[in-house]
Amino acid sequence: MSTSYSxxxxxxxxxxxxxxxxxxxxxxxxxxxVIASPRALCGKTFLALLxxxxxxxxxxxxxxxxxxxxxYALAACRPGITTRADLSTxxxxxxxxxxxxxxxxxxxxxxxxxxxxxxxFDLCEQIEFVEAARRRGFEVIILFxxxxxxxxxxxxxxxxxxxxxxxxxxxxxxxxxxxxRVHDSYEVDRESAAALQVPLMPPVLKTYADRLxxxxxxxxxxxxxxxxxxxALELRSWTRGxxxxxxxxxxxxxxxxxxxxxxx
Amino acid sequence: xxxxxxxxxxxxxxGVGKTTVSRTLLDYFAAHQIPTRAFDTEAPKGTLRRFYPDxxxxxxxxxxxxxxxxxxxxxxxxxxxxxxxxxxxxxxPTLQSLRDIGFIEAAKKGQITFGLFHIxxxxxxxxxxxxxxxxxxxxxxxxxxKNFINNTHYFQWDEQTCAAYFKKVKDAVEITIPKLNEMACxxxxxASVPYLSFIANKKLxxxxxxxxxxxxxxxxxxxxxxxxxxxRIKLTDLxxxxxxxxxxxxxxxxxx
Lengths: 264, 256
Hints:
The complex is a heterodimer of chains A (264) and B (256). Chain A contains eleven helices and seven strands. Chain A has a domain at 27-202: 3-Layer(aba) Sandwich (Rossmann fold), CATH 3.40.50.300. Helix content of chain A is 47%, strand content 15%. In chain A, helix 3 links the parallel strand 2 and strand 3. Chain B contains ten helices and seven strands. Chain B is globular and about 50 Å long. Chain B starts with a strand and ends in a 17-residue tail after the last helix.
């Protein structure tokens, strides 16, 4: 980014309203997840649903945004926490981003449809969304479903370069990768962004999980009544494993922030 | 000591974005802490005044007292830059008046820095204006501005035609004002604040506003691109040019 005097003046003015809302270095930032890939059918919405349920557990709260015009699958599964969004009009963009940057202490999550991948990140760059979100106390985390296809690996690398202030994390979903090893194609640029593993959910469990009226977080507390007990226990165990993976990721982020604050 | 600088923003056609360009200039100089005053010739109501009530004044360029108000105060004013937003259709007559009162000559002698931001329209007629304007310019800095803020298409200009007209003015420089999101443009207008205030989320009185983050971002990105053009043409250097050794003589106001 150019750092001419003119640019610095504009940057200072743009951020001038944040002086009173800046977050101290020791305050834990509010997570803002973007589940994104330029490719279809790579498990984005399933990943978004898992993360939304994880964030919602134990009294947590999350605002989710479904950016899949025409489908809105996340909104259909989790209507209580999900808002449908669209970027095709300026009012739609305002309705999304003006709400995203408002930090009420609630985690935020975006399920970004593949058709809006370029448009969304172009807009983020134009309005400097990631930097603005960080200054408002958010940690912007881009969860990227990893695939061996060259367009996916290229997009992942481009994302790391384009948004150095975001945490770009590859997600290895066994159901998508089907045993294919892609670690070498998804190098991470920081320790906290180590790849997340999502194990394969047995098909029979997937069938039940798709029909669940409760969140996976609630399955941990109360086994679903309309499911055979052994399947319910298996689902609970599977969920616990994934949530542990997410928890460890959060701890890595916290540790990284702590190390940084101790160094400065 | 810097010699006074006068920047005229004009067009011989309405609706091409003169006042928009004037606003970006005023904001640019404010950001670079260059004292600036502005004269809005859209008498009686004015168009610039609503955004810069403290820095601008409405004048009628046809009246000698108003001409004196502008040009007789150039060296005495606290402002080192004077921006004149010339009413649509009056660019050529204004330049003729300036020639008649000796202003062009004073600029030629290096007593005053004179720049013209000629906002071009999308038709060939606009290119004809260049020929007409060129006759008055002397050694003035001539900036030909293509304003795309409203998605104007300059499709009637083929390269050869363009080159033929542009060559008529020595050292003419082309400036491009990019497109700005329509809603952002509209909201800044409705807010009646300078672009800088909108970006800073402030009202005209300095109080905090609640403008959309998205629209502020669009305006910031756009203004950054506009200012990059002004940086490219070294506008701050132009207006900071030092006075020559000869004493500054004021141009005489034309007889009314």
